């Protein structure tokens, strides 16, 4: 009985090691570490084949058993020595260094091998008997070799870094199992003076179990290019059948206990239970969703990726950053390129919370009612899935509670719907056209599209934020222009109000009538210019050459109706010329003089001084009025819409004046003390004079 079990045990080891050898032989790598692993796998195949042939009585030379075993052990030790270089264990003073560079150590290993091979009669698997004392030395040699192998495994694993441990821990575990079992078997034989037949028989299965562990590490070792791979379909069906078999075994065991403990109802309950279990199994096996999930799990964890993600991400990022197209078009091009499609359309959330097509590539822009995508948006928000429209039409059960409008399902070019999720909220989606080069997508394509969609959603949100910011800036510019114009209208209204107030008293004077006509004419001209500015959206008119002294004389003459009178003092030549918009500059000095008049009693004084300093002109407006505190100047003077005049002021006069002066390359500075008056200095660059 044990002979037949031993045959199958070592036959399983032969099959596993042969498959491992084939996998390694067809690998494209040729460095010393990989070659030594191939030699170890081939030697293990040779050893298991030798034992199997002994069980079948095709071999009769006893020396072949210990010889092949010694070759196998030596091959694995040689591989572990090569593997130790990954952990840099061959440094001077280390265990590996001493073992490989000490002549005495090598001589000791050679002596152990000689004693193992030349010792009296190694036992055959069919000749188990009590050992005599003269068998101790070969057993000690075998135990020593097992200890050396375990030491190499331990030293290799202990000195690997974290990344190497992740790749090689299963290989170390598999090799450790082989040497640990040999140590236990030979130590037991040495202790009890008898080679345990059951341990010998189980040895083949133990070696076979080590092969899958070694294979896992092979798949993780960088640089291995396995030319032979099991297809995804074979792995899927194998996993499905294995799972079904385990399920049936468990259900049979449960049915046995139900029959055993069910009393008189046991047989009936067992039949009902097994029928229900079988129906459940077939339901699960024929479930499209479960089968799809199993395929994804197997593909993710048992097969290599088909994309070079670094290259794909660089190409995708380059497409998104290409400024030759607007952001929506760039998103369409980048996502469609991932699946080799020639076009796509992008749908984005509008201001009324409906989704509309904002751009398309090789696809006509279609109109929508706005609410037909509610089901799709809810589904994308819940799952974040990429929707395959053909798969939806054929198997709608895969997409729970999803309804696609006919504008999508009946579109012959529509293929995939990629969600654009910003955080967890859909900011839009992209409908990709069918590809002429790609008929279907798998889980890896879906994962790539999903993560690319999230990146594209950030770009879309930024694009929409930029549009909103641009619109806000346009409104801000219009509001600022409106505020300035309203401020000018207030000044015009103040002039008209002054005329009305003095009309009853001076209406019979010809000089007053002439002054009223002139003031009204100027007001009409100013209002006409203001209307033109509103129409053009631009403040002011074209710059012109201005003689500052004459300009300031006209401004002071304009404001001589109020007290105190502004007195101009200028000690400059006619070359004091600037280039500016005369209307805006008149508003600046007029506002400063008017403020000085309002803050100064009639008995006070206002002076306007014009000075030049190299290539700059300084206009100093000084009054003896109420003055301002330093805190007011720092926090409120130039703050828009902050006025000390109550309902009659808007608080933008000084702010506008400073902005106008700054646009000319100048600046306004203030010196003031409460109760002592204020001094405003306007500095302006002089125009260059022709040589």
Automatic annotation (TrEMBL):
EC numbers on record: 2.7.13.3
Reaction(s) this enzyme catalyzes, per UniProt: ATP + protein L-histidine = ADP + protein N-phospho-L-histidine
Signal sequence segment: none
Cross-referenced Pfam families: HATPase_c (PF02518)
Transmembrane feature ranges: 6-27, 39-57, 105-125, 137-154, 166-187, 199-222, 234-258, 264-286
Keyword Signal: no
Keyword annotations of the record: Kinase, Membrane, Phosphoprotein, Transferase, Transmembrane, Transmembrane helix
InterPro entries, alphabetized: GAF-like_dom_sf (IPR029016), HATPase_C_sf (IPR036890), HATPase_dom (IPR003594), His_kinase_dom (IPR005467), HisK_dim/P_dom (IPR003661), HisK_dim/P_sf (IPR036097), Sig_transdc_His_kin-like_C (IPR004358), XrtA/PrsK (IPR014265)
UniProt-listed SMART domains: HATPase_c (SM00387), HisKA (SM00388)
Chain ranges of the Histidine kinase domain: 484-688
An example molecular function term from Gene Ontology annotations: phosphorelay sensor kinase activity
Superkingdom, taxonomy of origin: Bacteria
Primary enzyme class: transferase
NCBIfam families: PEP_his_kin (TIGR02916)
Protein name in UniProt: histidine kinase
Organism: Neptunomonas marina
């Amino acid at each position: 009985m044990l002979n037949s079990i031993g045959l199958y045990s070592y036959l399983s080891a032969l099959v596993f090691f042969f498959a491992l050898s084939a996998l390694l032989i067809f690998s494209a790598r040729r460095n010393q570490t990989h070659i030594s692993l191939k030699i170890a796998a081939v030697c293990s195949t040779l050893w298991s084949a030798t034992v199997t042939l002994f069980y079948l009585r095709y071999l009769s030379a006893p020396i072949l058993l210990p010889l092949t075993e010694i070759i196998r052990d030596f091959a694995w030790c040689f591989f572990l020595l090569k593997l130790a270089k990954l952990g840099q264990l061959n440094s001077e003073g280390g265990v590996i260094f001493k073992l490989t560079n000490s002549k005495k150590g090598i001589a000791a290993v050679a002596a152990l091998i000689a004693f193992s091979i030349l010792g009296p009669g190694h036992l055959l698997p069919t000749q188990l008997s009590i050992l005599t004392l003269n068998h101790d030395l070969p057993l000690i040699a075998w135990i020593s070799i097992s200890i050396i192998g375990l030491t190499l495994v331990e030293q290799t694993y202990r000195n690997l870094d974290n990344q190497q441990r992740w790749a090689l821990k299963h290989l170390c575990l598999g090799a450790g199992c082989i040497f640990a079992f040999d140590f236990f078997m030979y130590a037991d034989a040495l202790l009890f003076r008898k080679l345990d037949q059951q341990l010998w028989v189980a040895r083949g299965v133990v070696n076979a179990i080590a092969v899958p562990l070694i294979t896992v590490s092979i798949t993780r070792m960088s640089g291995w290019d396995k030319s032979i791979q099991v297809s995804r379909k074979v792995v899927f069906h194998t996993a499905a059948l294995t799972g079904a078999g385990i399920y049936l075994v468990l259900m049979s065991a449960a049915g046995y206990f139900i029959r055993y403990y069910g009393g008189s109802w046991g047989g009936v309950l067992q039949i009902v239970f097994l029928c229900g279990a079988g129906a459940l199994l077939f339901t699960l096996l024929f479930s499209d969703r479960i089968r799809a999930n199993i395929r994804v799990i197997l593909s993710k964890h048992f097969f290599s990726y088909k994309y070079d993600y670094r290259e794909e991400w660089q190409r995708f990022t380059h497409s998104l950053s290409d400024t030759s197209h607007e952001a929506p078009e760039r998103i369409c091009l980048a996502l469609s390129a991932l699946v080799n499609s020639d076009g796509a359309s992008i749908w984005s959330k509008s201001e009324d919370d409906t989704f509309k097509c904002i751009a398309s590539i090789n696809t006509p822009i279609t109109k929508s009612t706005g609410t037909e995508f509610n089901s799709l948006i809810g589904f994308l928000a819940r799952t974040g899935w990429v929707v395959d429209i053909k798969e939806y039409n054929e198997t709608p059960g895969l997409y729970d509670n999803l309804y696609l409008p006919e504008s999508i399902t009946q579109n012959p070019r529509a293929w995939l719907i990629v969600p654009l999720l910003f955080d967890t909220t859909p900011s839009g989606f992209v409908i990709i056209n069918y590809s002429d080069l790609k008929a279907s997508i798998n889980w890896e394509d879906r994962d790539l599209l999903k993560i690319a969609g999230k990146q594209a959603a950030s770009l879309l949100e930024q694009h929409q934020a930029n549009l909103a910011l641009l619109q806000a800036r346009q409104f801000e510019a219009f509001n600022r222009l409106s505020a300035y114009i309203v401020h000018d209208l207030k000044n015009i209204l103040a002039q008209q109000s002054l005329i009305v107030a003095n009309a009853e008293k001076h209406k019979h004077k010809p000089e007053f009538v002439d002054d009223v006509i002139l003031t009204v004419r100027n007001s009409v001209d100013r209002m006409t210019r203001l209307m033109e500015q509103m129409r053009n959206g631009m403040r002011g008119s074209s710059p012109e050459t201005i003689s500052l002294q004459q300009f300031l004389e006209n401004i002071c003459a304009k404001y001589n109706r109020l007290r105190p009178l502004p007195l101009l003092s200028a000690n400059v030549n006619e070359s004091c010329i600037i280039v500016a918009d005369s209307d805006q500059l008149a508003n600046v000095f007029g506002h400063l003089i008017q403020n000085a008049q309002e803050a100064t009693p009639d008995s006070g004084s206002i002076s306007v001084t014009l000075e030049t300093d190299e290539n700059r002109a300084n206009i100093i407006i000084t009054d003896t009025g109420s003055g301002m505190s330093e805190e007011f100047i720092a926090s409120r003077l130039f703050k828009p819409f902050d006025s000390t005049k109550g309902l009659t002021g808007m608080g933008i006069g000084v702010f506008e004046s400073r902005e106008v002066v700054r646009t000319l390359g100048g600046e306004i500075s203030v010196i003031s003390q409460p109760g002592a008056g204020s001094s405003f200095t306007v500095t302006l660059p002089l125009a260059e004079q022709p040589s």
